[in-house]
## 1
Amino acid sequence: MQTSVNTGSMPAKTYVSLGQIKSRGAKLELPEVGGGCGTQGVAGKASCGSSDGPADMPQAIWDKVKNHPCYSEEAHHHFARMHVAVAPACNIQCNYCNRKYDCSNESRPGVVSQKLTPEQAVRKVVAVASEIPQMTVLGIAGPGDALANPKKTFDTFRMLQAQAPDLKLCISTNGLALPDLVDEICSYNVDHVTITINMVNPAVGEKIYPWIFYNHRRIRGLEASQILHERQMLGLEMLTARGVLTKVNSVLIPGINDQHLIEVNREVKKRGAFLHNIMPLISEPEHGTVFGLTGQRGPSAAELKAVQDACMGGANLMRHCRQCRADAVGLLGEDRSEEFSQDKLDNMLVVYDLEKRRAYQDQVALERQAQQTAKQQAQQASAAIKIADDLKVMVAVATKGGGRVNEHFGHVTEFQVFEVSAERALFVGHRRVDHYCQGGYGDDDQLPSVVRAINDCHAVLVAKIGACPRDELSAAGVEPVDRYFGEFIEKAALDWFNDYRARIASGAVIHQSRGDALIRQGAYTSALAA
């Protein structure tokens, strides 16, 4: 049965600048939060998006983020998200986006295998939530812009509220239409909105956006960027005033906005952004984007981390993003959408068991408490070691979920990378790799590329590792460690680090700085070439 919703008369899309808002005497009451999530919580810890629990933020905020994999780094180990492709139209053009191409093996925004009607989307969401009790979040992120397709977006939300009331609803938008639809967003209890903001200087934006479609006309050049910028800032302020948690996504484009993103971070913090997610440009030529076809490169992992580090102290950072497809299903870093294709849905008996879903989440709560306890114990043990140093090292981790060291080196498709010091193990990113093991055997030709992906790390924590990759990693200056199988990641990383510090203090090993390690790894690469 086809259903629809009367969204009422949409407000006229009138261009209103922040200056006009102020000149008309309108007042936006922004919460006194010091820039959303950029404030500091208990004992100076970053207050949102960190792996810390409710003691580090107000209870009302914790309730909104505790099982949202994008808004809590800790939650992404346990909870899944789903995107439904009900929004095909877009009202701007980005030089890094091309929605025409799709491969089931690629993960990038704007890519979908099938566009859905709101009715199809709701059936799919209910089916997925019935089979995957850890799926807690439903987002609309394209393949165009959720708010350039308001009727389809809000039809989907209306039906889901009736059939799956426990799901968190999210919207991802470029922000151009956002100020006109904030009331509509809030009427559906949407607590999480992501705005892609790549600039706060229209001169920078002119290099990223060829055109926008606004007020029934296509606008190009500096004027287009100016309008987009002001609409994004106004929409962000309006969401903050209504208590909606807002994440800002920014695509790091070397030579265009890499240094400028520090200013973006500062400006979105002022307007109450909850998190800032700085993502690397995806610009392979085969995707057919303007940047890809003109040779604009993406950033290296080191360049991405440098910009993120430069933003520390501003709006709090999200570093665990996987740049998901617009039809992604599952935990971050995985995609189970093929399990729920249309033909499989047609033959699937769907029973939405709310009690089963709540029971799973209760179980996760116990697991997370154990994870917090283990981390605190490891931090206390680290603090008790009387070695005066300010040592920081990078550690790669092989995990398949649950926040534990539990993946075989040969089965890894991505490593999680942590910066470890005496105080903490800070998640700083992930590195995608191809399987080393194929059909039960190691692919020796693939091994060097896997090693190079983590060649700035001092150690890699794995469940198990074979003799050949163990030797290759050691030759590259990366210590392979398999004695922490099943341990929580942060505890394992801190325990290894404390052992490493003790070995340095005893003279058993000589610490190499990252620069020295990279020199040695360069020699390893040259030896391979020879």
Note: Residues 354-384 form the longest helix (31 residues).
## 2
Amino acid sequence: MTGNSTSDRFSSNPFRILEPRAVTLATYERTKLALADTLQIAALRIPDERTGLQATIRDLFKKLAEDRFNLAVVGRFNRGKSSLINAILHTDRLPVGCLPLTATITQIIYGSRERAWITPEGHQQSFEIEMDDLPAYLTATTTRVAEARIELPAPLLRKGFAIVDTPGLGSAIQANSNNTLAYIPEADAVVLVTSYDSPFSEDERELVELAQRYRHRLFFVIAKEDLISASDKLDIDTYFRTQLLGAGISTPEIHSVSVAPGFEASVDRFVSRLTRFLVNEKQVEFLRSTCLRVRSILSASHPEPVEIAKMIETERMAGVLDEADNSTILQESNQTARFTGCSICDRVSERAVAFISTYQYELVTSRSVRETFARMGGFCARHSWQYDVLSSPRASCIAYAEALETLVSRLRPLAPCEPAEIASAVSKVRATPDRCPVCRIFDESERTAIAELAATISGIHEGYSGLCLMHLERVLPLIATTERALRLITDSSDAYGTIADDMRRYVVKLDARRRDYIDGDERNAARRGLTVLAGSQGLNGVSRVS
């Protein structure tokens, strides 16, 4: 395969929109969805018997669906990992002590209230437990728990972090170390917690080298600062930096902390750094780690040429992210225009519904109105069905029985005529939009709404007034200035793109079996997308389903 063929084939690939030093939130979303699309293709072409690879893809789907940044806290047992997490989150829910108490991978995520969930070994489904029972499940004696999940209403977690407490290295229970090392590839960034009483052991060095292999962002925390003098602290800091330099880290980010009373500021400084990292750098780190995992999956699946080409793009993507200036991730300055429905469609359909609702009462109660209705042949096809939705079967029978009788009286005399003559006569008695009273109301309301909206946009255009494609086309020529018209085009494009992203996110979360993560915008994305392209349901004579 030549470089040119790959370039041509993927000239419109979403990966290509990333340029160094220019990672926007929109770019982040679309690249994430492009990665999900690549995974979907790969999953379809991997044999079912390769269960391990299929499970890896499911896990990565879950990660993309949750869009949660996994910050793994690692280190030897009794370094104070759980104590540090408790201090960061202002909680005491993680068990702490001198023994290796954390034996299970424990994910701590945001929740509106405190809850805990346990996933048994060999199971996909989790079950909720009482928070007070959590220590029993997390102790080293528990061997049948694959993963624990804690939900806490902590502000830091609400910003998108999932803090992962891992079993300590170097304990007598080898499975603890194995579980921690096995989790490292799934992390997005790593916090290594060591301590001033014995900084940087050999197994911690191995863990750092493993994290570097996956190009994870590394933070280093030296805990128990309260146990050391100022002069000894300086010596240990120097020693630690030297050891990290020997491990291949030239400019390590080191934080000295203590959870002891009086040292709260040290933890606060570290939390502030994590918060800045989340706001300014999380997107790049998340995409980089995900790209590398997707590339690994594609490499292991012996892909066909199209997957090989996508693997090349994924690798190039990861390289671009490595070059990105993480301190200059672009945040969109304006809130993205949202499309909840076409304002003109909604206005016109509401007027039509109001007219039909009033007219149906007149049809039931007034003989003269029914006679006029019968001569018209009823409503046009579209509004006849809308009338059927809005009225009762009794009202429909009263209104349309006379219309059908009038139709019969007009058709019977045509029997001796030639077929062409009959067809011409039928077209004159059939209800058509030009004779439909609802269509007249509809056209009148639509012209007024289009003119009024164009005048509003031509003046002070504050915010985006959602428009379907049909009404966007009709409003644009009436806008007074090119500048205002271009603003409407830009806002409409942004809104339509957001719907496309919502549609793709819906599919990703559905495929990842994470229905509980589907939000309202994603749930109704299909309806909004169809509204953009075809107008609202009400405009097309279809009653809205609540």
Note: The chain is about 55% helix and 10% strand.
## 3
Amino acid sequence: MKILVSDSLSEEGLKILKEVKEFKVDVNTGLKPEQLKEVIKDYDALLVRSATKVTKDIIAAAKNLKVIGRAGVGLDNVDLEAATQKGIIVMNTPGGNTISTAEHAMSLLLSMSRNIPQASASLKKGEWQRNKFMGVELYQKTLGIVGLGRIGREVAKRAIAFGMKVLAFDPFLSKEVAASLKVEVVELETLFKKSDFITVHVPGGAETKHLISDKEFALMKNGVKVINCARGGIIDEAALAKAVKSGKVSAAALDVFEKEPPPPDLELFSLDKVIVTPHLGASTEEAQVNVAVEVAEVVRDALLGRGIRNAANYPSVEAETYRILKPYIELAEKMGEFACQLIEGRLQEVKIIYSGDIIQQDIAPIAMALVKGLLTPILRDSVNYINAITLAKERGIKLEEVRLAQEEEFVNLITLDIKTDKGGYSVSGTLSSNKKPRIVKIEGYYVETAPAGSMLVTYNLDKPGIIGNLGALLGKYNINIAAMTFGREKQGGKAITVLNVDSPISEEILEKIKKLENILSVKVIKL
């Protein structure tokens, strides 16, 4: 089997692959897209870091490719959908950079609090200005951590060792687990208001783009200090520059940028109170070795049939079983993603109820897919089929699976019951006659909708004019309704309307929908 390594990989990782007699390993870095497209047809596996862009065209040209291994967490340089459609397993290394990135965040926090880069530059110019670089202690200050996953937890441990109080926002972390970490879980707005330092450790993507912008800076303490070692774009760079110049933010430290490499004239670069590094979070000798070894091991084991780990798009099952389960796996993942965006509050308990012929199968991959879908809108690339249940349990989310032997309303039905600190929620799904996912019940309301694309879920009173008003408003903004379904508890009572639309619904439109007569609440779902 032939393996292509198209980005730099530590020798320790290459050695693992080269020691397997069945493998022929070629290291060919710096390939241009057309060159990669030409050579990829001969390879069974491709190993990349972040430089190689594995696009749809390159995947289409891959005749023998079985595995893509990404040495790192983010998969934004791999077309996951194209790989999945072609049956190529995509694996990443979510744990390899953890300590390195956490330590870099702490390094920036310390450098920022004591003005170390600025003081060093001043002294090297022959100046001796001790008063100019007066710093602050970390002791007894409050650090707000947005996202308490692997990296966030390691940052919390180190901050606590410095005598800091740690607040955390993470919708998938229970208060019990947080207490065991000596961390207080709070809502995001509370974190912004109470923190002296704020550091972000959430995935990138549309859900977290500009998570911190003008409105959020306005909530923060005067003189707050902020850090981003996660993904560029989580902090709005233009808003940050304004906040620094106004004095609202007394210091900032960035390792990642909205565009990388950033333009030389980026306004933040001209501000003395801003410390910047060129995406060094994973740039330690140990981290480079860790991700290289991890990606080499998972690719080796997958090619040799020893099992699949850290798969971003495949559960580990036998081929024939997977053929039967595949449509249910797709349904479960979509249900999870849908439910995550529907619910309010912090996840506490998840119950998955199966009924019908499906209970005769090995349903473990379905649960993995459903929990992956449930966590994906928040955790993004760091969650996959293999680690989803572990991540849920780490966050104190209780999982329960129930098989119902008795016949239900549908030949096969999967029901997801969720309990949060703000209430209970329920979503049920099945397959259509052509094996396509369908959601058939939401909160006890009977519906039939395809969980795909942009969706609008409204809770409303069952009164005349609801559909007309919605249609007129969406039409005004040139948003076409692709499908529509309704459910109600009784005539004139509470009802639900679910729309599939052809275009995304902006915040502006959402606010106008909320103001329509007889609308009780609205949710936008993106699948």
Note: Residues 265 and 271 are 11 Å apart (CA to CA).
